[in-house]
Amino acid sequence: MGSTDTDRAFFGQPRGLVGLFFAEAWERFSYYGMRALLLYYMTDRMLDGGLGIDSADARSLIAVYGSATYLAAILGGWISDRLLGDRRATLLGGVLIMCGHICLAIPAGAGALFASMIFIASGTGLLKPTISSSVGDLYARDDPRRDSGFSIYYMGISVGAVAAPLVVGTVGQTYDYHLGFGIAAVGMAVGLIVYVRTQRHLSPLSDRPKNPLRLREVPRGRLAGVLAGIAALVAIIVGTVATGTLDAGGVVNLISVVAIAVPAAYFTVMLRSGRTTAVERARVRGYIPMFVAAVAFWCIQEQGATVIAQYADESTDLGALGFTIPASWFQSVGSLVLIVLTPLFAVLWLRLDRSTRPPSPAHKFAVGLAIAGLSYLLLVLPALGGGQTNPLWLVASLAVVTIGEMCLSPIGLSATARLAPAAFATQTMGLWLSSNAAGQGIGAQLVKFYDAGSAAAYFGLLGAGAVVIALLLLAVTPLIRRQTERKAPSGEPGAETVSGVQR
User: What is the pTM of this model?
Assistant: First the structure.
């Protein structure tokens, strides 16, 4: 049985939230530390310690790298739900992420870069959905502390993310890229230690698979088909790489397509599954428009490591404040804003959700996406002026998109845990993370069009598009609310759940 209202040891929240908060903070320190350096490492001259990759190619590769990282969350959720359980999957994921950062810390060229991508994508796919699902397991489905708790947990992400560019970015850009990546590896190791020492406070629901796979129940023909499909996929990949058919551009295009196709296919599976009840199916249908809005949001927000990073390095006056700012420091702005605003938003959501007319998750999503669009529209003004932009414009834009993130991301985590079908609990959390994958997959194609000379048009079109999608979501919010607030008959799965798992 999961935690209940009686566990209020951590400022009114379950004590298990403490360990998850700090473990996630250190994991994000390692990830955002790597992310702060990656574009500059890939595009810098080989003589200066970089890889000498063309900037347009580097932007697309980083975008699909992020896409693959979050896309793997669906498989990670399945492994947890059916094989390992959340605790073991989280631990294994952390070990793989640490191995990926160690690869980057070794000066072994592009080979080490691509090896790190495999390790970090696989590890994040295991860790991200499972640690988020563990947070959801701490609360009953209708616990009014849920949104507040997820906002506090989300602050753990911010603590690691704000420190990483300042520490890892400064060391990497000032002294040595590989030394910076090495610090990121140490950060992940610390996160693993914190998790191991605090996992006893988690809900028992996180200790076992929520829908365990029993091989005797799997038809032999289906198992043979899956194994044959995996073998064929491996053979195709090996063959295309060996013959040079699948180059960097082909990889970018392939991952972009997969990033969109996989969540679409997974929604189809959940809606058609016999393990999904009628009420759960209605909730999933209501969840889809919010998922689409999240994709659009992440398409903008995740360009902080690509387009915004390049804009900061090439089009911003880094010495305008009286001292030279490392370009990587701008990636701490959003996380710093999150730290300041998270307590305020946690209180705001708690009060609004207890009001007589509480805003629905769809309302919060629409507001968050519209604000993200405004953050890009804000950059149109300095971009039209040409020349070097005052850094305060970029700081303002990053702060605005972060406010949008506070309206959408922690609410998305909470809504996903609440609306997940019982048989797909952790997998649905992986599906939520795949909204980031789809957004970055689309972004990998869009960032190809960015150029310093046409920055105003680029920011204007993407910002306006986000605002339009937000208005459309707002228009269908009443329909979404009717679908997501349907109640299951007593005794039916979904009637009383903890993160979509029957209590």
Answer: 0.78
| 493 three-state secondary structure | coil
CA distances to 182, 206, 403, 458, 503 from 327, in Å: 20, 40, 22, 21, 49
Amino acid letter, 474 = L
| Residue found under tokens 């796979």 | 213
Q: How many degrees, rounded to 5, is the angle at CA 278 between CA 209 and CA 490?
A: 80
Q: pLDDT confidence of 442, banded at 50, 70, 90?
A: very high
Q: How far is CA 220 from the centre of its chain?
A: 36
Q: What element of type H or E holds 1?
A: none
Q: How many CB atoms lie within 10 A of CB 253?
A: 16
Q: Report CA dihedral (396, 397, 401, 402) to the nearest 10 degrees.
A: -40
The tokens describing 432, both together, are 């939520």
CA 112 to chain CA mean position, Å? 24
Report CA-CA distances (Å) from 452 to 39, 207, 324, 383. Answer: 16, 50, 21, 8
Q: Please give the C-alpha separations between residue 497 and each of 3, 65, 480, 503, in angstroms, as whole numbers.
A: 12, 35, 20, 6
* 229, containing H or E segment: helix 220-243
What backbone phi and psi angles, to 5 degrees, belong to 488? Answer: -85, 150
